[in-house]
Amino acid sequence: MITKRIIPCLDVREGRVVKGVNFDQLQDVSSPIDLAAYYSEHGADELVFYDITASSDGRKLFTDILTETASKVFIPLTVGGGINTVEDFDRVLKCGADKVSVNSGAIRNPDLVEEAAKKYGDQCVVLSVDIKRVDGVFTVFAKGGRENTGMEAISWIKRCVDNGAGEVVVNSIDTDGVKQGFDLEMLDAVCNAVNVPVIASGGAGGIEDFITLFKTLPGVDAGLAASIFHFGTVDIKDLKQEMLRHNIPARIL
To answer: Catalytic annotation on 57?
Structure first.
């Protein structure tokens, strides 16, 4: 049986890992290099590195910090932020990333997913979607959750998967940092729409939220979180032991 992945997320701004609530109120956490090394050694299955202001600032991702971070990591590393062209994919992969996450860049240029998938393979292209309910409709937001695109999220995700996105990260703005559990309704809608791995992001407050996620939605492949790992609320090894206790497959070191 395929194990369920546990993925810490490093939201990086100006070279430091930060965390907020509902994509706002950011506070400093740590060095991405130190934190990545820690997670690589302490049971994380993968890591996600987001340069969270690259798109909104209209600049390229910090490659020097990324290169040093990647050198400390011995698990798959997904990198995103300011990915607007196939050349950006190339640059980030050369820095040591295993997969590249695209969000606002795909919204600006919907052909980007297909172009990158053809060049690097579907498995390399991760679609990250920031979603918020607007009048009851799952709606795509861009630029780190700052800009309402007006696009309905499920149809957008299906379109990108059809074009070659090999994985989808579903970031619920409604539950981000609130620590009241993952957005199960939103995740269920995505799982029913696509046949690629789906990663749940936004809302984890404790071990029980991951257990609920995987028990309720067995189609979800991974749980992603930030602050509960960064601040020691949840230890990944403890989480995985609890997963096994609930017959949820997990990789144990």
So the answer is: no
Q: Does domain 5-245 bear CATH number 3.20.20.70? A: yes
Count of other CB atoms within 10 angstroms of residue 96: 18
39 near 81, Cβ under 8 Å? no
Rounded (10°) angle between helices 207-216 and 236-245: 40
pLDDT of residue 129: 97
Which run of H or E residues covers position 184? helix 184-193
**pTM as predicted:** 0.91
Q: Count of CB atoms within 10 A of residue 223's CB?
A: 23
**In angstroms, rounded to a whole number, what is the distance separating the alpha carbons of residues 4 and 149?**
32
**Which entry of 45, 88, 130, 176 is annotated as an active-site residue?**
130
Residue 170 has pLDDT above 90, yes or no: yes
**Residue 130 appears among annotated catalytic residues:** yes
Q: Map tokens 């990108």 to a residue.
A: 160
Phi, psi of 191 (to 5 degrees): -60, -35
Q: Which long-range contacts (CB under 8 A, 24 or more apart) does 232-238 make?
A: 233/205, 233/206, 234/204, 234/206, 234/207, 235/42, 236/6, 236/8, 236/39, 236/42, 236/43, 236/44, 237/42, 237/43, 238/207
